Amino acid sequence: MKNERSLKILEIVSRADKPVGSWYIANKLSEVGIEVSFATIGRDLNSLEQKGFLKKNGIKGRTITPLGVEALLKSKKKQSIEEHNTKLVNLINSNVLKNFLMVLEARKTIEMTTARLAAQNITDNELKKLSDILTKQQKSYMLNKSAALEDIEFHRTIAIASRNEVLSSLYMFIATMGQQSELFEQLWRKLHKPYMGYHQSIYESLKEHSPEKAEKYMEAHLNQLCRDVENFWHEFNENKSISNDS
Question: Which residue ranges form the domains of the chain, and what is each CATH number?
């Protein structure tokens, strides 16, 4: 929705538990620093009603329609994507990329081993914990919420299940360097793909107690991370070059 004021009006009407009119909306807009006349609000309401986003309930006021709810959700999703893209651009530079890839290489060395050992030593309780984490990750992704902490917890649980305290400690040290999982998440939103794509395969391998499969899928997971980071960096620099030339 292009008109930010109209979007704000839809939000106000959607949150009300009864039909509302211009006076109510004007007060709510004023609370967030938007001063506008009753006449202007009336025109906005008529426009939203004509588009099918609002429904008039006699003299009581207006309520939001299912079409209005859908338009509101789409606008919020678009705004969220734009905010993520802006944050990602601010995070990325050549030093970040270099350090990021070094961390991934170190993680691969450690986590291929922890995955193999975990397949041999993991308990039913730890498998249940991984399953719960995967469920939370999927819900967070569908709701466009952060799942960075669940990502770290998934890999941390595997490291602990390896029963190798040194490797587990090394993973926790590396995994928290530079808030890398948050940057992963920004990249994955930019690439329109859930970053936990390999997690289910890793979980199934651990459930089967297959060291070979667990190691293979963990390696594939981290190799894919490296490729996506490098591909994004290449695309980012190309777009920046085009922007500077225009």
Answer: 4-80 (1.10.10.10), 92-245 (1.20.120.530)
